[in-house]
Amino acid sequence: MSWGNAPELPTGVMLLENQVAGHTAAQGCLGLLKPSNNDGTILKPTGKVLCGIREIAFYERLMESPEKQSDDESIDSTAASLELLRRIVPRYYGHPKLTIDDKEVEFIQLEDLANGFDQPCIMDVKIGSRTWDPLATPDKRKAEEGKYKACRQRFGLCIPGFQVFSRKHEGQLIRHGKDYGKKLTEANIRDAFLLFLNANKNGKLQRKLIDHFLRELALIENWARTQTAFRLYSSSVLLIYDAARLDSADQERQDVLGFNSDHTETTDTRSGWVKAKIIDFAHAFPADEAPGTVDYNYLQGIESLVGIFRQFLADDVDS
Question: pTM to 2 decimals?
């Protein structure tokens, strides 16, 4: 949603300072907002009408209680897929409307994944080599195919933006947007992750951070390998961790983990300071074109992301 000037926000809301991608206030758009009382939620403007309707419908369906789902045995797998999906998306709190500059704007209210973080490091990773949806015009399709081409063709993902509180720079906040992401290729995408993950001067990463991310990403990968209900276009995985807790002695005691070989959990010890969640469902469509099949476009991207992290773990990381 474009605005000629910075919109005057109503009392009770403010700009979200941690937005790293998408349409932002700096671009003359109405970006993400949050309630001034810091209630642990954010407000995402719905933007284009059809996109907003589609995303709200997605969350409404997802957040239905299991009792409301059909008990037909033929959809048991879909119900199980939705149950897992509920664990790997932000919590949904409805779609309130606010009046901004005399315009009624509908928002999607979601969990603020960075709530309570002192130094939130956040990366938006857009998943899929194809980002245009079935309703895209030829011009839209052409424009999308030209974006982040090197990374999307090789990995099935791209990085529109991220921020990191850099320990090598005494906690300085470093932000990179789409211009940085468009320069990434197979040769240098690893450097972007090393920067985001706070590699030390020798290029080493903390094992516990990589372990936590792999555990979070395993849930998403497992969902993508089995779900046959949706096709996700231009959806992202939001990677987030609190850099202030990298060296916390208390955190070390909490990080006694149980992993299987595929980094799935053996006990319910999920960390609250490292998260990976699927976001952005404005271009989520039912799998009508090839029912009963997985979303290979999405699966390629998430498997590539997991592969990058597994390679870091195989390297000489700090214990």
Answer: 0.86
